[in-house]
Task: inverse folding
């Protein structure tokens, strides 16, 4: 098909062939090698610390990374629990270092990013349980961490957005820590692959319908798409969204995830959950990885504006 991509996004299209999910371990290796050729983000003025916290399984430890600006070293701050993307099968804490450092500089918050286990080696519910363990740890350790556990924001991109949505459902139903706000950026929510955009965008760069199918198969196994999948695995299946925290949902026009994100926003509206929805025109899913593109810069600036409003920061 022919797409009216934003002009800033055209040159990067050939580079997204590396996102091949047929062999996740090999793709992880390639991405790590590519990452070694790039300079680490400048963390000046930001305190970056790693912690190892207990997981849901006996003896398991989960790595989390904390980011807070030096100027807020001793302040009690709201916290953003960040969940990285990668189709449930690739990605690691480091891929969001630049984003977390940038947000820590621009907002008086403590960012906590979680290194959850990846499918297919660790399918559902392992990644979600790791995120829940991080949420519980953040809430329980709020005094030591100097955070306000009444203002916990969950934030995720792509599969991380899907996990963030699932985490709000899971914590509500388990009577777990209260979540103040959910920021669902390009969220991966529906394993059934039957939405308008998922049916349409088979050939967009990097993240397309074939990769989405592989992602869900790795995460859920052969039962993906069946009636046996629980709502915590694929939040679009949730019937009851009452009592969830307010939400922001952002998505791109030429993203196979577009329709499921819009549909989830409609379900939140119907459940009287305050929700903001933004569809950015002219972009494909992985456009957010192109930092010089105007649409990516606008999306990043919008995130800061939205979070400032949510936290009542001028």
Result:
């Amino acid at each position: 098909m022919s797409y009216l991509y934003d002009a800033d996004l055209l040159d990067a299209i050939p580079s997204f062939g590396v996102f091949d999910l047929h062999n996740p371990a090999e793709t992880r290796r390639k991405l790590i090698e590519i990452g070694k050729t790039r300079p680490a983000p400048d963390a000046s003025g930001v305190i970056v610390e790693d912690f190892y916290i207990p997981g849901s399984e006996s003896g398991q430890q989960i790595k989390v990374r904390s980011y807070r600006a030096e100027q807020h070293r001793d302040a009690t701050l709201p916290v953003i629990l960040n969940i990285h993307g990668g189709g449930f099968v690739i990605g690691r804490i480091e891929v969001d270092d630049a984003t977390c450092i940038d947000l820590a500089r621009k907002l008086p918050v403590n960012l906590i990013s979680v290194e959850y286990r990846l499918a297919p080696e660790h399918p559902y519910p392992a990644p979600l349980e790791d995120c829940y363990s991080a949420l519980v740890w953040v809430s329980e350790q709020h005094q030591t961490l100097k955070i306000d556990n009444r203002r916990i924001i969950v934030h995720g991109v792509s599969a991380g957005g899907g996990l963030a949505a699932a985490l709000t459902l899971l914590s509500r139903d388990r009577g777990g820590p209260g979540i103040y706000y959910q920021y669902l950026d390009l969220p991966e929510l529906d394993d059934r692959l039957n939405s308008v955009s998922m049916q349409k965008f088979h050939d967009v760069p990097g993240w397309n319908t074939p990769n989405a199918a592989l992602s869900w198969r790795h995460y859920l196994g052969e039962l993906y798409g069946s009636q046996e999948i629980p709502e915590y695995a694929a939040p679009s299946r949730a019937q009851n969204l009452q009592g969830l925290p307010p939400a922001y949902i952002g998505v791109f026009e030429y993203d196979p995830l577009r329709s499921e994100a819009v549909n989830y926003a409609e379900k939140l509206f119907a459940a009287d959950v305050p929700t903001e929805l933004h569809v950015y025109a002219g972009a494909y899913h992985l456009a957010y990885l192109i930092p010089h593109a105007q649409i990516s810069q606008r999306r990043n600036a919008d995130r800061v504006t939205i979070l400032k409003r949510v936290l009542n920061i001028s």
Remarks:
- The beta strands are 46-54, 61-69, 77-83, 110-115, 147-157, 181-185, 247-254, 275-284.
